[in-house]
Structures are given as structure tokens and as C-alpha cells.
Amino acid sequence: MHIEKSKTITERATRVIPGGVNSATRRLSQPYAWEWAEGAQIRDVDGNTYLDYHAAFGPIVLGHNDPTVNAAVAKALTGPDMVGVGITEQEIMLAEKVVQHVPSAEMALAFSSGSEATYMAVRLARGVTGREKLIKFQGTFHGWHDYLLMNIASPADKIGKKDPGSAGQLADAIDNTIIVPFNDLAATEQAILDHPGQIAAIFMEAIPHNIGCVLPRQDFVEGLRRLCDTHGIVLVFDEVITGFRHGLGGYQSVLGVKPDISTFAKAIANGYPCAIIAGKRELMLQFSTAPGGKVFVGGTYNGHPVGSAAALATIAALEDGTIYERTFRLGDRMRAGLAEIAGRLGIEMVSAGFGSVFTPYFMSGKVERYEDLLANDTARDVGFRQGMCERGIFMLPMPIKRNHISAAHTDADIDRTLETAEIVMKTLR
Ligand code: PMP
Prior knowledge:
- This protein has 429 residues and is α/β, with parallel strands linked by helices.
- The protein folds into 2 domains: 4-65 and 321-428, Aspartate Aminotransferase, domain 1 (Alpha-Beta Complex); 67-318, Type I PLP-dependent aspartate aminotransferase-like (Major domain) (Aspartate Aminotransferase, domain 2).
- It is 37% helix and 14% strand.
- It has helices spanning 4-16, 67-76, 89-101, 114-129, 171-175, 185-194, 218-231, 250-255, 281-284, 305-318, 322-345, 378-390, 411-428; strands spanning 34-38, 41-44, 49-52, 107-111, 133-137, 177-180, 199-205, 234-238, 261-264, 275-279, 350-354, 357-361, 393-394, 403-404.
- The longest helix has 24 residues, at 322-345.
- The protein is globular, with a radius of gyration of 21 Å.
- The relative contact order is 0.15.
- Bound molecules: 4'-deoxy-4'-aminopyridoxal-5'-phosphate.
- 4'-deoxy-4'-aminopyridoxal-5'-phosphate is lined by residues 57, 113-115, 118, 141-143, 205, 210, 238, 240-241, 265.
């Protein structure tokens, strides 16, 4: 595969952009520079076209450059751009849609990115409870801010210890966040009992998708709900990835458990910047957008017309359910197909996923928490992904990452992916 132009452009980028990319996770060992994306395809500046399962880390749920979303955005450009005070009908419609579809959402506020939404959930939980500590689970990611950026894909020697994600994080922020193994209700309860009256919120990714796909056990989630009710803790479901991808009501509608607060971004707007924090009326009214609300919330771009228009068009496209039906069916085909090939070739694999998301782990055994994934064969995992990329099928070449199917993928795409996967897996034996 020729990547000369990608190399040249990336070199140019590194002269003015640190590392040549605008987000740390975008820098890969091979430089990629893009010039075109449509449907399920993306093309780099050297003319290499890929079938895309990365989906920009998940927002692309309808397909790249979806014409209805683009048309809605173009129409929004003919209305008010930004006025900075008051409200527009479009912002109301977006909140109404979230309230209509998300079981726990009684009110909603819009932001531009997931990190802003999870940050506001932290502040809200602390503001309403008067407590400082948070609980998060080993292996989850909730954005780039100080309070939750820790213990994501930790190396084995950092398990059970604090593993901050960045230099410059406040020591207080790190100290005040308690890390617990996922799906471990007893450990969660113990953490609460060890800090009586001090836990403001429990944060969980509705499905920890930042480590592929580790499904929450039903009794664990129901137990969290009970613990939060008993101890006056705010239960936050971070549905930044799961929201609108796994259903209009998010993964909470699959679980049938209502958090107090939820956060959404990514798939809600098919690639345009839009994020939401939503939840119980009595909590949401504590935001300072409401009279008397003491939890300050601001943001020049909140409810931006472009993101709001994209979100409304994306939700409208998802509303009749046919896209979920189709992409979930394709997801089932992909997971079963990968497992079948691996089984036939004698390669250990847990073909994980849910709905339109799939993650082949190169290991055997159970996958209930991040710690289980230390058994994943990283070299094989990355080797598989690189082999797929070299053959024109883009799966993020990093270990334990999720892949996404969009409405633009077809059965023929799945056939081709599985045929290619077999060729690549044969090279890994
Ligand atoms: N929460 C989760 C579960 C995420 O996966 C992400 C981003 N990967 C975020 C929050 C942060 O969202 P953003 O990158 O839009 O700030």
C-alpha cells in the first residue's frame, strides 16, 4: 500500500501540531491523512480506500457524510448561526427527543463534546450531594478531564493502584476517585462502606466500550441502582458510545435500569459535535441555567445549530428502528463469522460485542472486567488489525478496541470482511 502522501502530510503536520494530530488517540504507528469519506468507505490522500469499521471512534452510525444529516446541517446554516442568549426551537426539539426516547431523561442540556457532559455530571453530583468522592471502574473512560481520567487500559502492575492518565492532573482529583473492578458489586459496596457519606457519584460506561465490549451483568447494574438509592449516591450512566447506537433509549433501555443522570455524544449526531447530559428533573434543575440552580453550567457553543440539526436528523433516521434491526443483524453475522473462522483455524478468540459493535479478543475465558483482558494476546490482536488494514479494511490497529457497523455497511461488506479475516488469521497461526 502506498502511503507516501500521508507520510509527507503528517510530517508537515508535526511542524505545527504536536505529534501531527489533534487528539492523542489519533496518532498511530502508520501515518494516515484522509481526503474523502462516504457511506462505509474512507479514502486516504494516497488513494487507498478502506471499508471503515473505526467510524471515527463511534459517532458514524448512519454512514459517513449521510445525505439527510448533511442536508439538515445545510438548512441550519440558513437560520440564526449563534446568538448566545435565549433559545432556538431546534434546541428545544432536541431536548424533547432525548426526553421522549431515553427512559431516565426528564430534562436535558446540550454541550459539544462528551467530556463536557461527563465533567458536568461530576460537578452536578458533587453540587447536589455536598460530597467529593467518585467511584469509577477499572477499564472505563469518561473523557479527558482530571476527575475520571485514570485506570483505563492499565498495565498489569497498575491494577489495584491509581493509574492517572496524564501529567498535570490534580492530586486531589486522583485521590478522590476510587477505582473498583467492573461487575463486582461486593467491591463497589465495600468502597462505599469504606467512605461513609462521602461518595457523590458512581460513574459507569453503560457498556465499557473503551476496552472493546465488556457487558455489564444485569444483577450488577440492578445492585448499583440499589446501592445508590440506599446511600444517596448519584448513579451516572455514561452513554457517550452506547447512546443512540444501541437503541434510541441507550443501553439503559436494554438493561431496564434507570440511572439518575446519563451522558450522550458520538452517535447522537453522526459525526457532528453534540453532547447531552440528561436525567431526573430535580437534579437537572440544580444547574444554574435554571433560576436558583447552584451548579454553574456554561458553554458558548452549547446547543450549537449545526450539532443540534445533525442530532435531530440522526435521531429521525433511527426512529423507525429498521437501522437497528439491520446493523444488529450484521453485527451478529460478523461476531459469529469471526468466531467460526477462529475456531476452525484453532485460534483462541472471544468474539465479543453488542448490536452493531464487535471486538474480537484473542484469548479464551470469561470477559467480565478489564482484568480478564490481560489474557488478550496483544501481538495477535494488533497483528490481525494491521493485516486487515493492509487489505483495505480499517479496524483501528490498537488492542482491545471496538469496531462499529453503520447503516451504510452491507451483507456484501460483511462477506468481504470475513473472507479477509480468514486470510489474515491464517497468517497469525
Ligand atoms: N465518555 C465515553 C464513554 C467516551 O468513550 C468518550 C470519548 N471516547 C467520552 C466520554 C469523551 O467524549 P469526547 O471525546 O466527545 O469529549
